[in-house]
Amino acid sequence: MPAKARLYIGINVALGFALLAGTLIGFNQFPDAARYLACLSLACIGSTLKIRLPGLHGTISVNFVFILMALTQLNLGETLTIAFAATLVQCLWRPKTRPKVVQVLFNASTVVISTALAYVAVRAVPGQGHVLIALAPAATVFFVMNTGMVSLVLALLSKSNLLAVWKQCHLWAFPYYLVGAAIVALIDQASETVGWRLSLLALPVMYLAYSCYRLYVSSHEARTEAS
After folding, report:
1. Does domain 3-24+34-226 correspond to CATH entry 1.10.10.10?
2. If we measure between CA atoms, which residue out of 99, 71, 100, 101 comes closest to residue 83?
3. Over the chain, what HEC string results?
4. Is the pLDDT of residue 54 over 70?
5. Could you report the per-residue pLDDT of 126-164, keeping only the tens digit for each?
C-alpha cells in the first residue's frame, strides 16, 4: 500500500472515531427511545439489502435511507450510532470476500464523518418548512463526502485520477440517493399526521426503488460484458 494511502486511511479513521467518541462522551439523551431503536433496527436490516456496484469491491445498501431519516428526527449522538452500526452490518453481512479490519474501520469512519456533515447541512438550510428542501442538500453532502472519500483512497491505491475514479464508480448512483431523500421526506410529512410508526408503512416504496436499481445495475453489467 502506498505511503500516501496509509496516511490518508489513518487520518480518516482517527478523525471518524474521534468524532464518534467526542459526540458520545457523556451522551445519555434518548428523547424517544422507541423511535431510535426502530430506526436503528431498520437501518441494520437495510444494510443487508446490498447492491454491488460495477468496478468496485464495495456495495451500497438501503441503510442510507434510515441515516437520512435519523438526520431529521434524532439528535447527533443517536444519528452517528445508527450510521456506525449500519455500516458495520453492511461490511460484515455475507460479504463476497471477507473484509480486512482496516477496510471495516475506514468504511465506518467515512460514514460517520459524512453523516456528521450531513447533520450540519440539514440544519443549516433556511426554510425548513418543507423537509425535502433541507434533505436534498443533506443527501448531496452525504453522497459527495462518502463516495468522495472512498474514491480518494481508490485513486491513491491505483495511482489514478480522483475525478475519473469518482465518475466511473459512483456518479451514476446519485439519483438513487435523491430518491431515498424524497422517500424520507414523504415519511417525515406522513409522521406529522399519522405518527411515525404508521408512517413507516411508506418504506416498501424504498424496497421497490432498491429492486429497480438492482435490476438496472444487473442489466448494465450484462450489457458491459456483452460489449
Report:
1. no
2. 71
3. CCHHHHHHHHHHHHHHHHHHHHHHCCCCCCCCHHHHHHHHHHHHHHCCCEEECCCCCCEEECHHHHHHHHHHHCCHHHHHHHHHHHHHHHHHCCCCCCCCHHHHHHHHHHHHHHHHHHHHHHHHCCCCCCHHHHHHHHHHHHHHHHHHHHHHHHHHHHCCCHHHHHHHHCHHHHHHHHHHHHHHHHHHHHHHHHCHHHHHHHCHHHHHHHHHHHHHHHHHHHHHHHC
4. no
5. 655 566 677 888 888 999 999 899 989 989 988 888 888
Distance, CA of 118 to CA of 137 (rounded, Å): 8
Distance between CA atoms of residues 144 and 188, nearest Å: 23
Rounded Cα distance between 192 and 5, Å, is 46
